[in-house]
């Protein structure tokens, strides 16, 4: 009985089903000026990733997956997909740092960030969680544990599909194919 209770206590958090949920507008300062989902064209969608530039593994891998999935699209479809990384580490991720970091993935990748309150509101609406983890023995001082899904979102803030973290572009490519065709 105790073992079952402990397993329940430590089971990993899983967000509720989100496909089709209207999570709403995202309006943040970004590497291209003020960014708003509602400014997307009707035929465009954003691929949103919540992460941070000091992330040692998941973030660069996820952004590389976005780059690979977009590169596989025909030019007309690629134009319709707006890659957006929202930083969950506004203390360290300035717009300049985001811009420099995202250059490695493509010159059309957008970085955005905001105040802790703005990010908490967006995170709650989109079902994204993160927490700061102090690492006193490390030169980076802290890491940020965070959700690693990609979100395909339209101009109205509707989550078309949530794509679970994967080390290859296959799942995202399939989701983009469903969303764009």
From TrEMBL:
Keywords: Copper
Source organism superkingdom: Bacteria
Cited InterPro entries: SCO1/SenC, Thioredoxin-like_sf, Thioredoxin_domain
CDD domains: SCO
Domain named Thioredoxin: residues: 17-181
Family membership: Belongs to the SCO1/2 family.
PANTHER family: ELECTRON TRANSPORT PROTIN SCO1/SENC FAMILY MEMBER, LINALOOL DEHYDRATASE_ISOMERASE DOMAIN-CONTAINING PROTEIN
Protein name: SCO family protein
Organism: Halomonas litopenaei
């Amino acid at each position: 009985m105790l073992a079952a209770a402990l397993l329940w206590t430590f089971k990993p958090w899983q967000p509720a089903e989100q496909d089709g949920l209207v999570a709403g507008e995202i309006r943040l300062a970004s590497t291209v000026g003020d960014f708003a989902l509602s400014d997307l064209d009707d035929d465009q969608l954003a691929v949103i990733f919540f992460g941070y530039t000091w992330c040692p593994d998941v973030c660069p891998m996820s952004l590389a997956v976005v780059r690979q999935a977009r590169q596989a699209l025909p030019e007309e479809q690629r134009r319709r997909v707006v890659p957006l990384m929202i930083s969950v580490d506004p203390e360290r991720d300035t717009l300049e740092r985001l811009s420099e970091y995202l250059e490695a993935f493509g010159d059309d990748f957008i970085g955005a960030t905001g105040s802790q309150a703005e990010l908490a509101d967006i995170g709650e609406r989109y079902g994204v969680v993160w927490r700061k983890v102090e690492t006193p023995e490390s030169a980076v001082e802290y890491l940020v544990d965070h959700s690693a899904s990609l979100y395909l979102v339209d101009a109205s803030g509707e989550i078309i599909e949530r794509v679970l973290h994967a080390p290859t572009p296959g799942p995202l490519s399939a989701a983009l194919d469903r969303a764009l065709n």
